[in-house]
Amino acid sequence: MKRRRQAAILDLVDRTAPSSQEDLRRRLTALGFSVTQATLSRDLRDLGLVKASADGAYHRPGADSTPPDVAIARLKHAIAEYLIGVDRSLQLVVLKTGMAQAQPLASAMDAARLDGVVGTIGGEDTVLVICRDAAASAAVAARIDRMAKG
C-alpha cells in the first residue's frame, strides 16, 4: 500500500503541483487513499519532495519549478516558432517540426504539464505526445491547435 500511495503522490506532484499537505491529502483521498497528516509528512520526507519558493508547490528535488503561466507562455512561443503540423491517433498526438526543432518543443511541452499528458518523446523533427486516453489526446491536440492559431 505504501508504494502505491507514494507512486500516487509523485503522480499528483508531477501533474497538479499541490501547494499544501492538506491539498495533497484531499487529492489522495479522492483517489481512494486514506492518509493521515503524519503519514503524508513521512511520505514527503521519504520521497525527498521539496516545496518550491517560486510557486509554493511541492516538487521533486531538482525539478523545474517554473510557474505554470510562464511554462504555458514558453510553450506558446515554442509552438509558434517550431510547429508545422499536428496529427492524432487514439491516445497519441504527433507534432511535426522542422529539422532539429523537436527537442525544444518537447521540452516546452513537458514543462507546461498539460492536463492529460503523460509525457513526450522528441526526435529530430517529430514530437510524440503520449496522453492518458483518447479524450485527453483530442483535448491536447485541440489546445495545441488553438495555441498555434494565436
Structural account:
By secondary structure, the chain is an alpha+beta fold. It folds into two domains: 2-59, Arc Repressor Mutant, subunit A, CATH 1.10.10; 68-149, Gyrase A, domain 2 (2-Layer Sandwich), CATH 3.30.1360. It has six helices and six strands. It has helices at residues 2-16, 21-30, 37-47, 68-82, 102-112, 134-149, and strands at 50-51, 58-59, 83-89, 92-97, 117-122, 126-131. The strands form two sheets. Strands 3-4-6-5 form a four-stranded antiparallel β-sheet. It has a two-stranded antiparallel ribbon with strand order 1-2. Helix 4 runs antiparallel to helix 5 (102-112). The longest helix is centred in the C-terminal third of the chain and has 16 residues, at 134-149. It is elongated and about 50 Å long. The N and C termini lie far apart (45 Å).
